[in-house]
Design brief:
The protein is of the alpha/beta class. The protein is 36% helix and 23% strand. It has an eight-stranded antiparallel β-sheet, with helices on one face. Strands 5-6-7-8-12-13-14 form a seven-stranded antiparallel β-sheet. A hairpin with a 6-residue loop joins strand 7 and strand 8 (169-174). It is globular and about 75 Å long.
Length: 608
């Protein structure tokens, strides 16, 4: 979490930093700050709350200078407060540090520094880095930063400025993303590529354990022993348009509407002559054939896609497959060996729990691949191969298009692995490839047609305090995801349940005003779902049914019906989740919630 921007050039640094931070605000938004170097030294400005507060403060009393660093925070140590906002200065005010991550041993370092007479001004873990750098500084900022970094345990993306070095920023990375942007006579550093897009497409990704320096003309990268390593300049193909709202009221709504494109892009080039082609994963066929089990590791929405993935993988590879919450996996002693295929699923590629679970699996010899949306992020870098989801940048905190793109990737992965393992999948492959090709138009139709029904439904139930979502088999995870979407952006309590589990407890909740959203598209569990709906109706519950269009029986039972186009059963979670995303969106919007930035949450969860 936390967003980082640094600038060195001829422009007004405050302006570059604020614009850059605005593009990173999804990474955290409880406070923000900048440090700008001018003739009077390093000048700090920090504000609690949204970035706008900092921008307003800088408008009223500008900080001029053409070198600076900026940060938008998601609190881990110390409450959101001005003193805890970054940048953190050294005692003499000459060093300023911005940090994304956690210094796990900060108490020990703090105790040592306090004993040496240093006075701390904040409750953060980060502040100790500023004091350490000042302590080690003997005229060479890179050396001092290296010595300081060698003392740290934990995770960091760091940018360090020093008042005596007007043409230098030192950066360091371990466990949190960081990249350098190369301009003409100006250079940048940021947590992701979006702040750089108005200025440059040429980027250098800083790797795990590396440090770097940037001046206005040059960039250098060093390994953990401070030996210079050759820089690899890449050209990003991302456009600024893709990172902006494109006329929609919120990023989330824009991203829901981008799903036809995301699904299509995720399939593109991966089906050749009607067959799924996973050659981009560079997997060794004999190694794959030796696999005895598959473990999927992910968090939140990505975990729900993994739960669908489990069903698909078991169906098409016949290998026992487990879907693990990454935060549980690490502490549950899972059985991992060299015959285990681990798949990490992550939109951001930076989720700390998923990264650590992956590290654990790799340390035990597992073959690791990932499904990820962010190229060059940490998770793909640790894996043998990655099936990128190609959904484009997802800015809204609530994941939507990344989820349907992950589900699409799982269809491909399950079929592709099934083929590599010699399973008899030809007929299913033909059926599902045709279904995948039809999906973008079907999602489009759904988005155009059903919004009215969903909006009506959202209006009708926005005053309700509790919701139940139920589904079975492929659409049990859809129920979990629908409930997560509603609770995270509307703050209405919602639970997802397996339809068959209702009578084992939750049915007791049902009475006249209690709404259940039942996901019951055509497929082998539809009949059972209709029975579950009957049970709820018999107790006077209200039921909103997501059903395949033309399902007269579902129509008859439902208080509200939301129809999805007919599709292959395995693909139904991709269509069924779309109205649930919209239901959450319209409910939250009608309640006046901050849809793109729900309270207490942040987009990329880079702390455990
Ligand atoms: C919910 C949501 C989160 C993420 C989770 C994992 O809408 O977005 O639950 O899915 O934090 O994030 P990634 O996929 O980036 O690893």
């Amino acid at each position: 979490m936390c967003g980082i921007v640094g600038y060195l050039g001829q422009r007004d640094a405050s302006k570059v930093l604020i614009e850059g931070l605005a593009r990173l605000e999804y990474r955290g938004y409880d406070s923000a700050g900048v440090a700008v170097l001018n003739g009077e030294g390093l000048k700090l400005r920090r504000s609690v709350g949204r970035l706008k507060n900092l921008a307003d403060s800088l408008k009223q009393a500008p900080l001029h200078g053409n070198m600076g660093i900026g940060h938008t925070r998601w609190a881990t140590h110390g409450v959101p407060a001005e003193k805890n906002a970054h940048p953190h200065p050294s005692e003499d005010g000459k060093v300023a540090v911005i940090h994304n991550g956690i210094v796990e041993n900060y108490r020990e370092i703090k105790a040592e520094l306090v004993a040496a007479g240093v006075k701390f001004a904040s409750d953060t873990d980060t502040e100790c880095i500023a004091h350490l750098v000042a302590h080690y500084y003997k005229g060479d900022l890179l050396q001092a930063a290296h010595k300081a970094v060698c003392r740290l345990h934990g995770a960091w993306a760091l940018v360090i400025a020093h008042a005596d070095h007007p043409d230098l920023l030192v950066v360091a990375r371990r466990g949190s993303p960081l990249l350098i942007g190369l301009g003409e006579g100006e250079n940048f550093v940021a947590s992701d590529v979006t702040p750089l897009l108005p200025y440059t497409r040429r980027v250098i990704y800083i790797d795990e354990g590396q440090l770097g320096t940037i001046s206005r003309k040059e960039a250098h990268v060093y390994d953990a022993q401070l030996r210079e390593v050759p820089v690899k300049v890449e050209t990003t193909t991302l456009t600024l348009d893709a990172a902006e709202k494109g006329g929609f009221e919120h990023f989330m709504l824009k991203e829901i509407h981008e799903q036809p494109v995301a699904v299509e892009a995720t399939v593109r080039g991966r089906v050749k002559d009607g067959r799924v082609d996973l050659s981009e994963l560079n997997l060794d066929a004999s190694r794959v054939k030796a696999m005895r089990r598959i473990q999927l590791i992910a968090c939140g929405t990505s975990l729900y896609s993994a739960m669908v993935g489990k069903y698909l993988l078991e169906r098409f590879t016949s290998l026992p497959t487990e879907a693990w919450s990454a935060s549980e996996y690490r502490y549950a002693n899972p059985i991992i060996d060299a015959q285990t295929l681990v798949v990490a699923i992550s939109q951001s590629g930076e989720t700390a729990d998923t990264l650590e679970a992956l590290r654990l699996a790799k340390s035990k010899g597992a073959l690791a691949v990932s499904i990820c949306n962010v190229m060059g992020s940490s998770i793909p870098r640790m894996c043998e191969g990655t099936l990128y989801t190609r959904a484009g940048p997802e800015i809204g905190v609530a994941s939507t298009k990344a989820y349907t793109a992950q589900l699409t990737a799982f269809e491909l992965l399950a079929l592709g692995l099934g083929r590599m393992l010699g399973c008899d999948i030809a007929a299913d492959e033909a059926r599902l490839v045709a279904g995948l090709n039809a999906l973008p138009a079907q999602i489009k139709k759904l988005l155009e047609g059903d919004i009215v029904a969903v909006k009506r439904c959202a209006k009708r139930y926005q005053g309700v305090a509790n919701f139940m979502y139920i589904g079975r088999h492929y659409n049990f995870p859809t129920a979990l995801e629908g409930a997560l979407k509603l609770k995270e952006i509307s703050y209405i309590h919602a639970e997802g349940y397996a339809g068959g589990e209702m009578k084992h407890g939750p049915l007791a909740l049902v009475e006249g005003t209690f709404p259940t959203i039942a996901i019951a598209p055509r497929g082998h569990t539809r009949e059972k779902m209709l029975s579950n709906i009957q049970e709820i109706k018999a107790r006077k519950g209200v039921v909103v049914v997501v059903a395949t269009e033309g399902d007269a029986e579902a129509h008859e039972l439902a208080d509200y019906i939301i129809e999805i186009p007919a599709c292959e059963e395995e693909l139904s979670p991709i269509l069924a989740v779309v109205p649930l995303q919209l239901l959450a969106y319209y409910t939250a919007n009608q309640l006046g919630r901050d849809v793109d930035k729900p309270r207490n949450l942040a987009k990329s969860v880079t702390v455990e």
